[in-house]
Specification:
The chain contains 2 helices and 4 strands. The chain is of the alpha+beta class. It has a two-stranded antiparallel ribbon. Helix 1 (2-27) packs antiparallel against helix 2 (98-136).
Length: 137
């Protein structure tokens, strides 16, 4: 039961990373910048990837989420009045899709619920096991 709780806790941590990444993307939705000047670059949108945590025998112990830049972290946009505009009037805009971020947050919410149910079930099983042990003594 300890393994189930440990696995569920790693799932909660992974879901937290997903929310963290989405929140950062939404908060920086309008953080534009220069396409050519790295000191004034736009916000680089991020995403998460999950990997399985295994022991030395290859047994799965849980998951780990890492925040990484999106494949296309920002895109060009026409804004000739921006202080970041190049000679063609282009600036960098974060590659953030609000619908995608809403889905990511919804997935994280459901992941939280599922992992909390695993922890609750493991706790109830432990209590039942202790009750059975107490009845025998």
């Amino acid at each position: 039961m300890i393994n189930a709780i440990h696995t569920a806790l790693s799932g909660l941590a992974a879901a937290s990373k997903k929310v963290e990444a989405s929140a950062s993307n939404v908060a920086n939705l309008t953080t534009t910048g220069s396409l050519s000047d790295p000191n004034n670059a736009p916000y680089s949108a991020v995403t998460t990837v999950q990997e399985t945590i295994t022991d030395s025998d290859g047994n799965a112990l849980g998951v780990k989420a890492n925040v990484i830049p999106k494949n296309t972290p920002f895109v060009p946009a026409f804004s000739p009045d921006s202080p970041f505009a190049d000679s063609d009037g282009l600036i960098g805009v974060p590659n953030v899709n609000l619908a995608e971020e809403a889905v990511n947050i919804s997935i994280a919410k459901n992941t939280f619920k599922a992992n909390l149910q695993v922890i609750q079930a493991a706790s109830e099983l432990s209590e039942d096991l202790l009750r059975i042990f107490d009845d025998r003594v």
